[in-house]
Design goal:
By secondary structure, the chain is an alpha/beta fold. 44% of the residues lie in helices and 20% in strands. The protein is built from eleven helices and eleven strands.
């Protein structure tokens, strides 16, 4: 029985590899990268689900010449937040604030475990270059990339029970090489150079490649540390003590100088008003379309996006391990 089960697992693994190999092979021969990319981008299930339009939402009425614009970071920081083609992406909301002379401050609501190194950097840079004073209120979680983007702010408020910290960079790779070899399956790759497309599901990462990835990891980590030194006006030695990957409660973060005050979003609004001399500001937020679809439709949409991402990865034929400010 155990033997049959082992054979079945090996058969399923072989089938998956064959299918993905066929997809990659067919795509490289018959589909140009440009047309494939356009096809994937056009796979927008949401457009078929009758979503409501998004737009400007007035959270608190007030003087329209003195505006506090709220921008929400909710969920993993990924390419959807930095997509300039999406009307209400985070990056475009920052652009809206930058171009509006009536916006006197940006209030960034952060609830995220972090995300991609590239996307976190893009959001941080956009906030710094917005020309607006940024204030952060941390919600349930503001770790790693969530803390990274918070370094663009003048002040950070958080709840005592907020989870923050996890200051660092993570890279990971899952290998099934031993399992495949144990079941008589061998991956054969022809490379133009020893470091070309190394790793992936079917092979272990050699030490020479791990050394390269460790250098990339250190580069991103050092940049993160530098931003904290600058953003929190803290010595590098102290930041290095704090940035060992551990998480902190809001109370611990306050005691360690990682945030400025324990308080709510309302508390932060009052602090902004006092600091900026705003007596009756209008508080607005630009919200993305809300989905009115059923649970089943949302599930289909998520699965379609996952499949599209997998196909795109196979078409691009890359085994690059992503760096993430995530945790």
């Amino acid at each position: 029985m155990k033997k049959n089960k082992k054979r079945l697992i090996a058969l399923l693994a072989s089938g998956a590899i064959i299918v993905f190999s066929w997809i990659a092979g067919t795509s490289s021969k018959e589909i140009e990268e440009e047309s494939a990319s356009k096809a994937i981008e056009s796979l927008n299930i949401n457009s078929l689900l009758g979503n409501n339009q998004g737009g400007k939402k007035v959270i608190q009425a007030g003087d329209t010449s003195t505006v506090i614009q709220k921008i929400t970071i909710n969920g993993t920081i990924d390419e959807s937040m930095t997509n300039e083609e999406t009307s209400y992406s985070v990056i475009n909301q920052i652009k809206t604030a930058k171009e509006d002379p009536n916006v006197k401050a940006i209030m960034l609501s952060v609830n995220t475990p972090g995300g991609g190194v590239y996307e976190s950097s893009e959001i941080y840079n956009a906030l710094v270059n917005s020309g607006k004073d940024v204030y952060v209120v941390m919600k349930k979680q503001a770790t790693s990339g969530g803390y990274y983007i918070s370094m663009a702010s003048k002040k950070i408020f958080a709840n005592e029970e907020t989870t923050t910290g996890s200051l660092g960079v993570v890279m990971s790779n899952l290998s099934m090489q031993k399992f495949l070899e144990d079941n008589g399956i061998k991956n054969q790759v022809i490379r133009s150079g020893e470091q070309k497309a190394v790793g992936g599901l079917t092979e272990d990462i050699p030490e020479s490649t791990l050394a390269i990835y460790k250098e990339l990891n250190k580069e991103s980590y050092d940049k993160f540390v530098d931003l904290i030194v600058k953003g929190r006006n803290m010595s590098r030695e102290k930041v290095l003590q704090l940035a060992d990957g551990r998480v902190y409660s809001g109370k611990q973060a306050l005691n360690n100088g990682l945030i400025d005050q324990i308080g709510t979003e309302k508390d932060l609004i009052e602090a902004i008003k006092e600091e900026k001399g705003l007596s009756n500001p209008e508080i607005v937020e630009y919200v993305a379309p809300k989905e009115t679809a059923s649970f089943l439709n949302n599930l289909v949409s998520s699965l379609a996006q996952s499949v599209a991402s997998e196909v795109e990865a196979r078409i691009n034929n890359t085994n690059t391990i992503e760096r993430n400010y995530l945790g």
